[in-house]
Amino acid sequence: MYSIKAHAKVNIFLKITGYKEGYHTLLSRFMRVEDLYDTITFVPCECERFTIEGCDGVPLESNTIYKAYKALNDHTGDLDILNFFYAHKVVVTKRIPSQAGLGGGSSDAAAFMRLVKEACNVMISTEALAKLGSTIGADLPFFIYNYPSANVSGFGEVVEPFDEAPLALELYTPDIGCDTAVVYKTFKSHLLDDITLCSFLGWERLDSQTLLETIHDPVLLNDLYAAALIAYPALKDFTKEGWYFSGSGSTFFNIL
Fold first, then answer.
1. Spatial distance between the Cα atoms of 129 and 16, rounded to a whole number of angstroms
2. Under 8 Å between Cβ of 149 and 30
3. Mean pLDDT, 10 residues at a time, over the chain (256 residues)?
4. Cα separation, 187 vs 251, whole angstroms
5. What is the domain partition of the chain in residue ranges?
6. Domain 2-161 top-level CATH class
7. CB of 29 closer than 8 Å to CB of 13
8. Catalytic residue (choose from 38, 108, 139, 223)
9. Is 117 tagged catalytic?
């Protein structure tokens, strides 16, 4: 069997820098969460079609892993991939909550692509794999490069490693799912005109602990938090002093 960990991430900060071609651009610090991960395993099994277990309630065509499989097949035209998944099923052991701002679906798809590259000896560079991943979701390049910490910009396709070890973090995810598309749409409708690029100049050069210890306001650190509060007012009931907000939500985190 082949197996790989698909780690969660948090956004130490996330600032929207603009809007073009129908998508928001951003500048963000992504950090891998070392002790929270899904597991992707390729288990020997005679399969009539591509088979995923462990993603109950998610239609196959909507599953990011299936989208990654299709993208790899279409890009490489490699029959070894097709044949491999007639002889193996994909088993996902889920630990990362969904709609929580932790990148679970993107991490799963990226880990799948990295594991297929190993299992099927696919001759594709990490850079090309990240570019292919970006066609599936904006967070995939970060997970494909597999950096512990990185500055991510553009539409998510520009990933620059940041030299720091992941922080020991405590996470709390309330029983509220935040739809990423809804949060971004809310930001565009209510907050896009208010962005001030000069307000976060140089943040990408500061280490994550310094950023969190210097800037205590979670709304200032993460532009999507205010949008999430508008879209999901119940989040206000879970706000705690000293806690920060990851991505489009709904997870809060702090430093242990």
1. 25
2. yes
3. 96 96 95 98 96 92 96 92 96 96 97 97 96 96 98 97 96 96 97 92 97 94 97 95 95 96
4. 18
5. 2-161, 169-255
6. alpha beta
7. yes
8. 139
9. no
